[in-house]
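Researcher: If only I could read backbone structure tokens as easily as an amino acid sequence. Walk me, if you will, through where the backbone shape changes along the chain. I have put the entry right below:
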Amino acid sequence: MTNIIAPQIPELCLVIPVLNERANIAPLVGLIDGVLGGIAWEVIFVDDDSRDGTRTAIADIAAKHPNVRLLHRIGRRGLASAFVEGAQASLAPLIGAMDGDLQHDERLLPQMVKALRSGDYDIAMGSRHVAGGGLGDWDKTRAGMSDIATRLSRAVLKTPVSDPMSGFFMLPRPVFEQAVRGLSAIGFKILLDIIASLPTAPRIKELPYVFRTRVAGESKLDAGVLRDFALLLLDKMIGHIVPVTFVMFAFVGALGIAAHLLVLRIALTLGHMPFSDAQLVATGVAILGNFALNNIFTFGDRRLRGWGLLRGFLTFAAICAVGAIGNLGVAGFLFGPAGSSWWVAGVVGAGMSLVWNYAVSSEFTWRRK
């Protein structure tokens, strides 16, 4: 039998999501290596298909450091899902998360390991909102947005945390395993997701650090991040009852009804159009508006672009047309032969149409790749 020497399983795995951060790779690995003496560690860079040679930079470092690894993702974005996939690709008993843009203070890593080794804590994290911490060069607008998000996030947490928006933390694998099946994995706020998904309130060690200025790479803060944060909060509050995307779809549908009535009124009163023509115009505007909003917000993680927009709109319009026919048929039957009141017939018909439109458009218009 051939003797196989198995590689040592490191004590710590750092999962670092990256996107177009080639210039940061070598300095970051050097900083981590400089503070983790005496600790067996590995780094898994999760690259969301960078275009600047980031993967080449990682490969160059990995040739010299076998504890540096790469996970290349195509067609998927987001820190939360990147962290989950990176953590699952390792067997290390301790799992850490930090950014690849050099904004997190690597000097906290040994303190996090020490806190978790003691067995007194379930999570060790860097906090910008305890004594000694800070937001660095953030302007008042961004700092204010962070404060609002922090306050809102406390609605879904089981324990007080000064900085639940932090992306710099460490936890034992058993704690991760307790939370992973309940994770929403939406967007970028994975720590908030983990804390809210644990069955009991975790014991948290908060360590102060000052957020550094970005050196290179792309900022991940945009309107999509705000959307993902809102969806994460909704999912933690009601996701066990109904899919949060269904709630968003229904909300967009309500806006579509309002837009339909507004356009219908304008077409009748100002455009002096026949009712049938006005109704057709209003319906077209409502369907187009619903498609655009659902593409941006409800299914932002599967957003259609380019020629996919045309195909998506045509399938969405066809699906809505079938839903409308079904709505009329069900409501007509309930109001007529079944003898139901008008509002019961209307609600049931609209509800059936809503469920149909959501289920079928999720599968065909915005199908997952």
Summary: The longest strand covers residues 12-18. The CA atoms of residues 3 and 9 lie 18 Å apart. The chain has two domains: 12-236, 244-364. The domain at 12-236 is CATH 3.90.550.10 (Spore Coat Polysaccharide Biosynthesis Protein SpsA; Chain A).
